[in-house]
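Input/output pair, single chain:
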Amino acid sequence: MQLQLKNLCKQYGTKCAVNHVNASLSPGVYGLLGANGAGKTTLMRMICGVLKPSSGSIRLNGKSIEELGERYYSHLGYMPQDFGFYPDFTAREFMLYMAAVKGLDAKTAKQRTEHLLHMVNLQDVANKKVKSYSGGMKQRLGIAQAELNHPSILILDEPTAGLDPKERVRFRNLISDFAKEKIVILSTHIVSDVSQGKTA
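Output:
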């Protein structure tokens, strides 16, 4: 599997947020390293199809994402920087809700929810409301929902923001587990978050 970014640009009036980015990505972890405001989120939103590039193209296995349409989106898992949780939902309710949004049938939704809550070590607090969770627990729930549809491209925007060092290490280990057979792109301004992966 190959994700190709070719001469990708995004202009906002006279401001250039992303300037001629070229990359060819195969399965593994890739870090977008840069200060806040460097254009990392803009680039990720273009890869997700949320933003349209001013110029350039994004291709998956040689086909443009416009041509692939819904088939491309079925490959994606996305965790935005400011992920919106429903605070009165429990983690399990939230996961089942997100599974329905992503079009999973009820049986698959239940199986994936239980598997992923266990994987991110939230199974013991799955029936507690999300508003009672720490920042690290919410981040782990965020990556779990991004994984619900078995994406082959996982995009994580500042996934370790606000985490303490112990939670950051746990999160990095989690990302390494997820990255064995998929493309994982994560943005950060913390060098150690991407020191084990590849930088772009």
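The chain has a mean pLDDT of 87. The chain has seven helices and nine strands.
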